[in-house]
Write a structure and sequence with these properties.
The protein is α/β, with parallel strands linked by helices and 453 residues long. The protein has three domains: 128 residues, Response regulator (Rossmann fold, 3-Layer(aba) Sandwich), CATH 3.40.50.2300; 147 residues, P-loop containing nucleotide triphosphate hydrolases (Rossmann fold); 126 residues, Helicase, Ruva Protein, domain 3 (Orthogonal Bundle), CATH 1.10.8.60. Helix content is 46%, strand content 14%. The protein contains 20 helices and 16 strands. The strands form five sheets. The chain has a five-stranded parallel sheet with strand order 2-1-3-4-5, with helices on both faces. The radius of gyration is 27 Å and the shape is flat. The relative contact order is 0.07.
Length: 453
Amino acid sequence: MKTGKPHILIIDDNLQICLSLEYLLVKQNYEVSYAPSVDDGLSLDKKVNPNLVIMDMNYTTDTTSGQDGLTLLTQLIQSNPLRPVVVMTAWANTQLIVETMKIGAVDFIEKPWQNQRLLHVIEHQLKIKSLEANHKGMVQHLSQLNNQELVWQSKSMKKLMEQIHVFSDTDASILLLGENGTGKSSIAKMIYNLSSRKEENFISVNMGAIPENLFESEMFGHKKGAFTDAKNDRVGRFSLAHNGTLFLDEIANMSTSQQSKLLRVLETGEFEIIGSSRTQTTDVRLIAASNSDLKQLISEQNFREDLYYRLNTIELRVPSLKERIEDIALLAEFFIAKHSRKYNKPKPELSDCANRALENYPWPGNVRELSHIMERALLLSTTDKITQNELNLVPNNSLSKNQQLMTLAQSEQNLIQLALSKEKGNIIDAAQLLGISASALYRRLDKYDISYV
């Protein structure tokens, strides 16, 4: 019988573990069931339909590899893809964590667990599921609480966010890969905010912007008088980030000489300030980002392979905007609201034709480009609604190979908008360019709700 309390199912072949977890969770007002084996767990899962499952990865038939757990996890996800599953084991390794995340686990807890960490994970996951159940698309508000530049509801971003919540609270180096403008710097800040180092400094460095002759000064610091124009002491980025997080953006733009100097401090944690013979030590959590194919650069001998493996203990790929079309309307609304506050203007609505145009555009500049376009559209808008005209999204032939296939109706809308843009809104000239009559063009403008005033 349902009690109204969130129901948690524990699957573990160690009875003492089950009883300890039950004691902890019942005190937190959760309803708890537990099963001592894979078969019993699957049976009880169907019977009680829990809100969340906590499961062990190793059972009596195989106590270290986690294969029993991976099989059980797969069956649990297949039976209810929307129900969160938290995996737990004393035999943790990075490959096993990655495998569980690929299958669909939402988080990973090592034994012996920390009560507060476990309770936080459970509360967090139940909150996500509650938002999803109560209102379609409301899950993006959770990400906004973590970072105001991240709005999402797509499967690709949801998967990335789940991975981030697993790895943020470790000290593992993280390498973020993805196209320009996808939001890698925002992701890095989110990882920092979720980490145990969030009370310490977050230092961000654009590695491609540091001149060769200033690299050591910028990264390690210098003493007054160490070289010409060194009129004051300078604290380097590694010292500023000590005990905190250091974010190295555009890592592929470093010269080979800079890569060698960076590798040394990553391997040993040691460096020297220019003008001082005293060796300094640093303790930083490192996050790096690149929009380049680092493996290709390695094969071309333009990026050090040993540095690459120092940076990518965990490698996360940030999806491009064209891979997360479900998020475009949400992001557009977010940026309209953001820029409306910036310019102290009333927040206009997006018309249906504008939303269709946004979803059909290939977005070579990703989220950054979307932000700029919505800012421009807001400034151009003179009514309470942003139409396709204010967006001024002119297809670029050079990008056609990256565009997805579209319906004939979508293609027709794009051609009409291109003609109107080319003829500066003149209906007669645009109709002639399209090879149809003006009345035929007017009918299509009304059909697709394309503004022509």
